[in-house]
Amino acid sequence: MRVGAGYHHPGAAPARGRNVAPVVALLPHRRHGPAASYSRAYGCDCRFENSNAAIRLPASSLQCPLPDHDPMLLDMARAYLVQKFGEPRLMLSDRLRALVRRFIGVGDIGQIAIADALSIHPRTLQRRLRNEGQNFEALVDQVRRERLLALLEHPEPPRLSQVALMLGYSQQAAMTRSCRRWFGCSPTELRRRRVA
Q1: Where is each HTH araC/xylS-type domain found (predicted)?
Q2: pLDDT tens digits for range 19-42
Q3: Which residue in 165, 160, 151, 174 sits closest to 105, CA to CA?
């Protein structure tokens, strides 16, 4: 994660109740003194003559609470971003794929259940997918295909009966039919090919 270097000053993190140590400071200028002085000031290694100024923080810092969180400032920042860049819009098909990936093998990935999770009517789901040039069954099929490949490439792949359950199939035979349709061979043969 990167934040502008102007945001950081020594002791800012502890003063805000956080205990986040920067990973590296990227500075746009040449070094004007001993590197150790910069490292002490920023509390991390410093790199000079970069195209922009930034402080890299560990990804875990995103989980830190913000004790001085200001909801009004957040609303102002969001409004500015929407005005400047427009409303962020994920395609419905992308949201659907993400839900299927999350629920596959552990929950219902039927059209009604997914529509319910998206808080829309199943017919609305069908219509909006059609407007994107997609259809529900093809998207679920695509997620299953990707997941099958990932499971078969795992160093210690599960048994095929387990793979079928993990893909949301009630029977291994249904998975085998899908595998033949996707790759022209059985899961066992596909596994052999991928390992070789």
Answers
A1: 94-193
A2: 678 899 999 889 999 999 999 988
A3: 165
C-alpha span between 35 and 174 (Å, rounded): 63
CA-to-CA separations, 59 to 1, 21, 56, in angstroms, rounded = 6, 11, 9
pLDDT tens-place string over residues 68-109: 778 888 888 888 887 777 666 778 999 899 999 999 988 889
Q: How many CB atoms lie within 10 A of CB 147?
A: 18
Give the number of other Cβ atoms within 10 Å of residue 81's Cβ: 12
Q: What value, to the nearest 5°, has the Cα angle with vertex 87 and ends 51 and 68?
A: 70
Q: Which two tokens stand for residue 114?
A: 């997914």
The structure's pTM equals 0.55
8-state DSSP, 104:
T
In the block, residue with structure tokens 């929950």: 107
CATH 1.10.10.60 residue ranges of the chain are 92-195
